[in-house]
Amino acid sequence: MFRFLCLILALYRCTAQLQIPDECNRYTEIPEVHRRGKNYVRSADEPHVNDYYLEEKWYGKDGYDMLTEAPKTTTACGTISPIYFKGTIPKNVGETVTDTACAVGWLSNCMHKISVTVKRCSDTLNIYYLRSTPVVFSAYCFGRLDNDRDIAPAPDYVANSVSVLVDIEWDDPENSSSKENIKFQKPQLVFKCTFFPIKEGLVYQVNWFVNNKFIMSKIAENKENLNELAIKEEQLKKKEIKKLGFVIKCSVKALAELNGLPGSAVHSAGFFAGIKVKTPKVVLQRGEETTISLVSTVPFGCIYYSLAKHPCRAFIETYYTLGTSCSSAAVVKDPQGMLKKPANRCRVVIQVTKFNETENGEKRNWTQEFQWTVSQTDNGVYKLQETYFKIKLRVSGADFDYLWSEYELDDIHVYVKDNTSSWQRKTCSAYCDPHMTTFDGTTYEMQKSGIYTFYKHKELPIEVQLETEKCVVGVPNAHCPCGVYIRSGADIFVVSTCPNHTFFNFWHCGDGALQVYRDGDKKFQIFLPTGAIVTVTLSYGYHINVAINAAPRDLNNVLGLCGDLSGKRDDDFVVDGIDYGNITKCGRFECRNEFIDLYAIKPEDRFFPLISENTNLTENLKTYNFSTCFCPADVKPDSNVGKSECSSNLFTQCSSPKQKQRMCLVKRTRKKRDVVDQLKKLQLHSLRISRALKRNKRSLVAQTISEEQARVICLAKFSKSNSFEYCQTNVPGIRNTKEVENCIFDLNVTGVTKWAEDALDAVTHQCIHEAEKNTTLQNTTIIEGGQSIADVIKEITCPNDCSDNGKCVNGTCHCKEGFGGSDCSFETLRPPVVHPDVGDNICDTADSTCDYVHIYGENFIDSPKLTCKNKVQKIGINGFTLNPSTVMRAQGEALSPFEVKCPTTGFRRRRETQNNSIVFFERHVISIANDGILFGIEKEIALIDSRCQVTSAVYNKYILKDGYCFIDGKCVQSGAHMEGDRREVCLPKNDTFKWTRIENVPPLVTEPCLMYRPLPDISKRSSTTLLSSLEETLNDFELVEGWYGTKGYNMPLTELTQSKSCGAMSGIWLQGALPARLNETTFGLACVTGWVEGCVAEMSVKIKSCSPSLNVYYLKPSDVMYSAYCFDVSTISRRTVKTTMETTVETNTVESTKDSDDSHSNNVGIIIGSIVAAFIVIVCLVVAVVIMIRRKTKSYSFLQKHFLQHLHRECHKKKEDDLKS
Asked: Which end of the chain is more exposed for a tag (fewer CB within 10 A), N or C?
């Protein structure tokens, strides 16, 4: 019976907690009570106390009462119209009085009347039911209970060194306590007003101001309570201070006592709280970079658990309101250097202040510096269309923090100065044999063989190397460019027809900073990250011409055979203050050998090495962060994916040219050996192609042409060109004097008339470049009909003026019958030349899909008519063709005049013939036609799998390796079984081309049972292991997905009762069943235990039985931070003999016996339980009635006291009796 009384006591206590407390327990403290005294003198910087907006409710403060006499002045109580209470303050505890309060005015001590209710709560506490005042700048007056004595005069105290300091504290929110006393530590900023000296016996008052607006006043009654003068983030929030970026300051004054007269106030300087932009305005020279700087003046804190840290972070991100990613825009260098990762590049991480973090025992300096390198993307136009950009900044990722979240910083204004044109119309070139022209226009001859630095940037890892060789038979000193090797960071692109290393492709890749486009059959355009453009054109005799158009970033920043781009010619041959411009006679040529030798490159330093084993190449090719990021204005805060538009270039190319882009062939790998192997493979191709081309190379043989004849030929070539005539008339800087003289000289010396075309190409190249970059030429109002000069130039300019074999229509050559190619220089009446001995004769399906094969030769034309004819032959085991060849055709892709890519996927069939003969491999016999009709000689390529197929001694025949089967067109290793049927096994001794069937194969132990991982920290994962006993929490939030298991351990199948079990903040238990049989697989739900609920998150789990003592679990990372999967020692063992049916029967038998023994006791228990339930209901009704009576009468206090005391004594006595028994 006494137990029921104890239950009643517990019910009462629960019910009592639900009662609403009376007014004395729920009043609000009077705001700014220390400024409401009758003698308080308001400082000039203080606002008036104003109760005009006061919320109607109960107010009070222990030790303070409302004034009952009218103040002597209207400026008393910190306001203009003070209010006093005309009634009598109640004397007895519990007594309530309602009377009138009067507002003092200039003409009367009671100009306005207000009803005020006063209730006596204790000997030192009266509470007041106050309403908003009837007039503005009026306030209720309050003073201490001992306010009758004399007022203390103002002390002779003046504060020094008044300043604002910021700190961070971790407070416990009101609801921080939860299950097992786990608490959150929430950070908040604290601003402290520091001053000197601090004297004993004074009261200090600090007034706080934000953006010169008064916020609140603080009082410290002694020097031990100076921390009460600080203002916290929560208090700022209540004052509608929503975001950082404000200026906060304080003023200090002292009083001899709390209600005394204040002394003089001293103000601090303003403290900027937020992230200060140190560079609000930057001026950027075109082609240069500058830095924007930010500094954080306050710490950024992070929420932590009391036992485990909760990770968080925030960012400062940039975005733009003016400028676009196209044409010209303000961009930032990738701040983290992480272009290859999917993070947003328009942001930097704010350093987090951790809980209780110190540095050398002291709180560390909160100041954080942030910097971005800002530049301006440049599309190379001569006159910038946009020279002003606004960069906006904001904080993202701090949603949990009131002041930091979406905090917008001050704008940064970027002005771009375009005050120089020294880089415009500057082209460095090497044409014909070769005539060299520096960026500043100085010309000279180069008649030497070797490799040279043609162009090199002084600040960036960008370089162009030029290789030359002898090129005219009969003229010993005549040399021509044959190779250009372009490097940017870890990227190298090669155009080479030099002896022994002909190549047209990427040789190495690592940055993706080179953009390469092929324009027709003979021209490549390579865009450097700076915006400079390298144009490489194949010339007659398979030699090349090179031209580099400068970009703004090249100004005073380049060296090499192109000279120093400075705008002055007299320093082109000056290097480090020494003039290397001496002229040397090279036969009939005037050379600058001293200057040329200065930039000669050793063979081991060339970018395109002759020796593949030169591993020094890959070691020196370090990647470089060229990447820049444009940050669009429409990005929403906290957007993470795909918002920053990043590029590996420092220039802008808004739309890709019409040319075909050449992608990288050699991928960068981690292993040096892999790179060397790729280089060897490409070197082999290069050598084979070079030897074939060398046998068929068009030799340039010297002929006799007089100077006058040469002049006639050259002038005729230029005068027949419509594009040249138009450019010379309408485009500034286009003249033919230099090119015509070079043409005449070359023809007179060598007799090679084809070089007249190269001289003309040098002029038209510069003309087209001007049309693209000179915005004046793009003005559509210059010519009637809405066309611009640039439009006309693009329409009438074609490569090589179509070689006199076609007509130029809208910039494209329409060739005469029998001619083809982008410049109509190829003869289509004869098929292209294929070199059968060049390239591999096999395609290994073990290394690639073999969807395409490469055919090498000459005179391949890049056109839609380029056709690959493929005869597909199915070859049997004995090497004979099984059936007639299948002939199919498909369009090929000309990668260069020397290489075609032909598809095989449309021709490949299942490896089985109509007579069910086994197809061992396929042979593709391929020929090429430029016009789809005239096919050249054929090349055979076999598609094999090198894992099991090797070349035999017989030509073009392949055999099967020992230890392998070849089944259904696939290599199968000896002992391997058919997928899905373990009885079918590869046994080469029985049959190399069919499965061998084996009966009575033992059951397979599946892969999870062999490949599982042991559970980490298994000893800590017990459901009885509490977190408080561990040094650090387990965290399966970062678990690697996969199979896990440990013999003798299984996940618990019952709900956990404690949240801190299993060595983590939240344990994870299994809702489901374990496998009952060997090799059985079951599925369940893993439940994360919460502080209130037993399953706050669910994750699917797969369980597989591997042995009687081992289950393996397929676990995924937990969805909840600092939770861990629980594993207990398992007491369940599977029986392999007794069946599940027998176990069930035995279990049912035992349970039925137990049920029959306990049936009588269960019936008695049901009757007693019903009586107890009825009794509890009656007691609850009685308690409810008593509570209602208590609200109406005071007599209940006596009843409550004695009734509860009696129950307590009886419960305690019963407990002692139980202990004794």
From this structure: C
Q: What is the pLDDT of residue 1030?
A: 45
Structure confidence at residue 822 as a pLDDT band (50, 70, 90): confident
Q: List, in sequence order, the alpha helices (H) in 701-855.
A: 707-719, 722-730, 737-750, 755-773, 789-796
Neighbours of 716 (CB within 10 A): 11
Amino acid at 782: I
**How far is Cα 469 from Cα 134, in angstroms, rounded to an integer?**
101
In three-state secondary structure terms, 220 is strand
Q: Count Cα atoms within 13 angstroms, Cβ side, for 530.
A: 30
User: Is-contact 1065 183, C-beta < 8 A?
Assistant: no
Alpha-carbon span 539 to 945, nearest angstrom: 41
Q: Based on C-alpha coordinates, what's the Rg of the chain?
A: 45
User: Omega into 197 within 30° of 0, i.e. cis?
Assistant: yes
The SS3 of residue 224 is helix
Q: Could you tell me which residue, 395 or 737, shows the higher pLDDT?
A: 395
User: Using an 8 Å Cβ cutoff, are 530 and 554 in contact?
Assistant: yes
- What phi and psi values does residue 185 have, to the nearest 5 degrees? -115, 110
Determine phi and psi for 653, rounding to 5 degrees. -130, 100
* Sign of the alpha-carbon dihedral angle for 237, 241, 244, 247: negative
Question: Which one has a higher pLDDT value, 93 or 1026?
Answer: 93
Helix axes 1196-1220, 1140-1192, angle to 10 degrees: 150
Where do we find the tokens 């002692």?
1216
Q: Write out pLDDT tens, residues 6-49.
A: 444 444 444 343 343 478 888 999 988 888 888 887 877 788 89
- Separation between Cα atoms, residue 148 and residue 145, nearest integer Å: 8
Name the E strands within 274-398: 275-277, 281-285, 289-296, 304-305, 314-320, 329-333, 347-350, 368-377, 388-396
Least confident of 34-43, 175-184, 815-824, 1005-1014: 175-184
> Can you tell me whether residue 609 is helix, strand or coil?
coil
**pLDDT per residue over 575-594, tens digit each?**
988 998 888 777 666 788 89
Strand partners, 491: 488
Q: How far apart are CA 336 and CA 499, in angstroms?
A: 44
The reported pLDDT for the residue numbered 341 is: 34
Total residues found in the chain within this entry = 1221
Encode 1047-1075: b = buried (16+ Cβ within 10 Å), e = exposed: eebbbbeeebeebbbbbbbbbbbbbeebb
d(CA 408, CA 795): 50
Give the pair of three-digit tokens for residue 670: 């981690």
Pairing status of strand 314-320 against strand 589-591: unpaired
Q: What angle do CA 62, 68, 70 make, to 5 degrees?
A: 130
CA distance 101 to 822: 101
CA 811-817-823 angle, 5° bins: 35
462: its two tokens: 């960008």
Q: 918 near 910, Cβ under 8 Å?
A: no
75 exposure class (CB count in 10 Å sphere: 0-12, 13-18, 19+): middle
Please list the helix, strand and coil fractions of the chain in percent, rounded to the nearest 5, in that order.
20, 35, 45
Q: Which amino acid is at 513?
A: A
The pLDDT tens digits for 754-805 are 778 888 888 888 888 888 888 778 776 566 566 888 888 888 888 888 888 8
Which residues touch 123 (CB under 8 Å, ≥6 apart)?
93
How many CB atoms are located within 10 Å of the residue 1219 CB? Answer: 7
Residue-averaged pLDDT of the chain: 76
Determine contact, residues 48/139, Cβ cutoff 8 Å: yes
Mean pLDDT of 82-92: 92
Q: Other C-beta atoms within 10 Å of 5: how many?
A: 15
Task: Give yes or no for residue 1110 having a pLDDT over 70.
Answer: yes
